[in-house]
Write a structure and sequence with these properties.
alpha+beta; five-stranded antiparallel sheet; four-stranded antiparallel sheet; 7 helices; about 30% strand
């Protein structure tokens, strides 16, 4: 069993090192992002300024040309050490399924949405809870085999944790051959 994730700051540090599997490309600071020149290589790629504070504000769909303005806006509300940048999901892809899954008493508990928006907004708009076999079948329909196997690993290694994910219609992320990004693993 893996060491539990006890805080958002702990999670982000471990996420950046790839501990939780396929993720979105992520940078610790604005200057890390800018220096990477990632923003110069992908047409249509958007980013989000994320927060190391649980429940903290996130700035979605930031175009590269607007990043310095958005980052400066964000550091007026939070210290720069509380913020980081991640690429939004693939610009040429469709979100198939996204949500939160955890091991429940009767199998998997899946709180999900199919709304094609960033997860917080999508879950607020329309979310459904399924359990057991229905949850398992829904995940099998939308996650590729690599992603399903990794999700099973995460749920086993991080007992009593919730796994946030987004499954896309094609593979994308920091690990080749996965159609699912694992956005967060947190203790519930």
């Amino acid at each position: 069993m893996a060491r539990p994730v006890l805080s958002k700051r702990d999670f982000v540090r471990r996420y950046a090192f790839g501990e939780f599997g396929n993720a979105s490309p992520t940078w610790d600071t604005y200057w890390d992002w800018y220096s990477s020149k990632h923003w110069m290589t992908l047409v249509g790629q958007r980013y989000h300024v994320r927060n190391r504070v649980a429940g903290g504000q996130t700035w979605y769909d930031v175009e590269p040309r607007d990043m310095v303005r958005v980052w400066n806006e964000a550091v007026k509300k939070y210290s720069g050490s509380q913020l980081y940048i991640s690429a939004m999901g693939p610009p040429d892809s469709t979100r198939k399924l996204q949500g939160e899954v955890q091991q429940g008493i009767w199998g998997l508990d899946l709180y999900y949405t199919t709304v094609k928006k960033p997860m917080r907004d999508a879950l607020r708009e329309k979310a459904t809870m399924v359990q057991g076999l229905r949850a398992k079948m829904l995940l099998q329909r939308h996650l590729d085999q690599n992603s399903l196997e990794w999700l099973a690993h995460l749920l086993k290694a991080y007992r009593d944790h919730v796994v946030e994910f987004t499954a896309y219609d094609h593979c994308w992320g920091t690990v080749e051959g996965y159609n699912t990004l694992f956005w967060e693993v947190r203790k519930y």
